[in-house]
Design brief:
about 180 residues; alpha+beta; five-stranded mixed beta sheet; 5 strands
């Protein structure tokens, strides 16, 4: 079985554009700090997620508490054995570590039911990792949404980020672009 990744890309661009416009129309006064795709790729579900500055801040504060607590294991006598894992998996972020923690974590879901058969098949090779198709797909879709200025209808916070993450994957929330970013004057 094969997937028509170009068709999936075109479908995701078209449906996402409509959903972004719909969200902006439904929430005209809401500042948006993050747009992301949350991909449960094995089942073919791509959640369209939006976050707000207030939620971003409260989730980041909560995450910092968890990170600081996790890092206490470094003080244990054998803390050095897992130091690399502890420090790389427990990074302090100024945004939620997952799109699942966004204010509108599943505003809508775009489904590709044929993906479940593909990813559940014993016929696809395990190497190179077939998830790479999904990663490239999400990146391409976000880039195309930027090209068509799909995010311009949103009331963007500073900064405004776009990205994606995968369910049950340690990749984390990948930021593809940042906009409306004011630096030092």
């Amino acid at each position: 079985m094969t997937i028509d990744w170009k068709n999936a890309e075109d479908t995701l661009v078209q449906k996402s554009t409509v959903l972004i416009e719909e969200f902006a129309h439904s929430h005209p006064d809401l500042r948006v700090s993050f747009f992301a795709f949350g991909a449960d790729y094995f089942y073919g579900d791509i959640a369209v997620a939006f976050d707000t500055p207030d939620n971003t801040c409260s989730q980041a504060v909560s995450w910092v508490g968890q990170v600081v607590e996790a890092r206490t294991t470094l003080s244990a006598p054998n803390g050095w054995e897992h130091a690399r894992y502890t420090l790389t998996k427990n990074r302090i972020l100024e945004y939620p570590p997952s799109s699942g923690l966004f204010k509108y974590e599943s505003y809508s879901v775009i489904s590709f039911p044929e993906w479940e058969d593909y990813f559940g098949s014993d016929e696809i090779p395990g190497h190179p990792d077939p998830k790479g198709h999904v990663l490239v797909l999400l990146w391409k879709v976000l880039e195309r949404l930027v090209e068509r200025q799909a995010f311009d209808c949103l009331r963007q916070a500073s900064p405004f980020r776009i990205g994606f993450d995968l369910a049950d994957d340690d990749l984390g929330l990948v930021i593809v672009r940042m906009f409306n970013w004011t630096g030092p004057s």
